[in-house]
Amino acid sequence: MLPVTGTYAGLLAFGFILLSARTIVARRRYGASLGTPHRMVERVVRAHGNFAEHVPLALILLALCEANGLVGWALHVLGITLLAARLAHAHGISREPELSAWRVFGTSLTLTVLGAAAAANLGVAAAVMAGR
What DSSP string runs through the chain? Predict the structure, then answer.
């Protein structure tokens, strides 16, 4: 059972659905069924794509942390930070003109979560292997 990861996966799935809907609306508005011929279509497509590129690995790492016994408060810190990161990034990249500070902040937080979760997994794995 992975209730903490499940919570953040569910919340992030709603974010993915929202970004998907924004992409559909932009494609219809600008008549772009394929490709990104308009700058705003490109922005919403990249917000959606960037989410799809980063969130799965972060959730896998979070699930492994939870399965391997990382303390609950640390799991929640990772999950909340990931949520905030993806919201900030999508907010920054989806605007014209771009809100670069939000985009950079979101990217930095996302990479921090990935790095922290990777390090936590390595630490937990090393502790388990050392105990054998």
Answer: --HHHHHHHHHHHHHHHHHHHHHHHHHHHHT-SSS--SHHHHHHHHHHHHHHHHHHHHHHHHHHHHHTT--HHHHHHHHHHHHHHHHHHHHHHTSSS--HHHHHHHHHHHHHHHHHHHHHHHHHHHHHHHT-
